[in-house]
Amino acid sequence: MAIDFKPLQTQSLAAQIADRIRQSIVEGRLGADDRLPGEAELAAQFDVSRPTIREALKRLAAQHLIRSRRGPAGGTFVNRPSHQELRDSLTGAAVVAVSMGEFAPDDIAEARRELELLCCRLAAANRRPEHLQAMAAEIALQSSEELSDEDFCASDVRFHRALVDATGNKVLQLVMFSVIEALQPVINLVIFRFRERAQIVGFHQRILDALTAGDSAAAAAALAAQMQYLEQQVAVAQQWRRDRQRNR
Description:
Blueprint: H1 13-26, H2 39-46, H3 50-62, E1 66-69, E2 75-78, H4 83-99, H5 105-126, H6 129-142, H7 149-165, H8 170-191, H9 197-213, H10 216-247
Antiparallel strand pairs: 1-2
Helix pairs in contact: 1-3, 2-3, 4-8, 5-8, 5-9, 5-10, 6-7, 6-9, 7-8, 9-10
């Protein structure tokens, strides 16, 4: 067991204990499925009360870093987070950062463009029929004039999620999940009044056609054209907002 038990500061003991255990996990001194000492032992080692230990463990459980199991072979164990848990954690952090104004629309658009260009190149080589079918289904849905703005934006997200899934790269899928699920909707919210649906559908069709043909250059070119169009619409939306504020 390799947890740093050196003396604690007097403030926020539970948070400090949680940070010590988390650091041990991050640094590899505690591995997946390792069992932590019991509450009483941890309380003695850290020289704190058992309620403080319980609060620290609750903090770690909320971060999906540990899990508890009852019974004779039970206890508290270092968790092996699922891909979905990692995605949810990243997306949640990105949503909070966006809501606090940490990311400018221009930065979001630039990051998304560069990352999705990489996705296009990989997807052209690794896409499977189900990925192409998923993208085609979203294009068909987006072509409906009866589709609401909200549903169009949701379909747009699903199209690009299928594009990312087509890369077959789990690291990119994890990183891009927060971009697609948290950051892309921000851009959609900014520009939905100004973008033309037919333009978006056209770009999506070009991307799909290129991926179907396995043409990475054409897929990247179509994606780059879409990102340029979106960035132009962001600029239009920002100018509209500035003009509106001046006229108030």
